[in-house]
Design a protein that fits this description.
Elements: E1 16-20, H1 27-34, E2 46-47, E3 50-51, H2 56-61, E4 63-66, H3 78-86, H4 94-107, H5 123-135, E5 141-145, H6 153-166, E6 171-176, H7 179-185, E7 188-193, E8 196-202
Parallel strand pairs: 1-6, 1-7, 4-5, 5-6
Antiparallel strand pairs: 2-3, 7-8
Helix pairs in contact: 3-4, 5-6
Length: 205
Amino acid sequence: TTALKSLDFEVHEHSIFDFLGPNGAGKTTTIKLLLGLIKPTAGGGTVFGHDISSDSVEIRRKVGYLAQVPSYYMHMTARETLRFKTRFYFSGPRNLIEERVQETLEMVELDDKADRPIKGFSGGERQRLGIAQAQVHHPDLLILDEPAANLDPMGRRDVLRIMERLRMHATIFYSTHILDDVQRVSDTVAILNHGELVAHASINE
């Protein structure tokens, strides 16, 4: 089976780029290739000028990633989770780490629930925490795999609002199969079907 055929597209800085397609179209495969989690059997690509096959560590220094189904240590709080993640990237004074954690919690509107165990969070709150984890180290690119797919309308609205806010800080590349979400926040859309790029244009087109 050919999971993904030849793709050719660019993602512009500080845009919200949507990767649209039905389940099984190859969206997650593309994301894993960009992150160096799997290797292409043919072709290649670059992220920030770095080769996806040979420079994946350098790419991941500049990228924040939210998996389609994020997992957590459920007994930990949101603050503890972000503090844990931040220490992989920063070794500076503790007060600066705490400032960054607090800033990120406020950005995703979880500051009022920061010290509650994650096991009590709603689906939307867990997704917002996932975005916070992806954003906490100030990445230049955020890759979000189906960030609002399994949420109720309120949860989806909250996630999309936060994505619009984050574009000031990073380029956002996200996958989805929900047309309404695409129309609300995207600048550019690439449509994938059966592993093949069938359209790529601005949202107006």
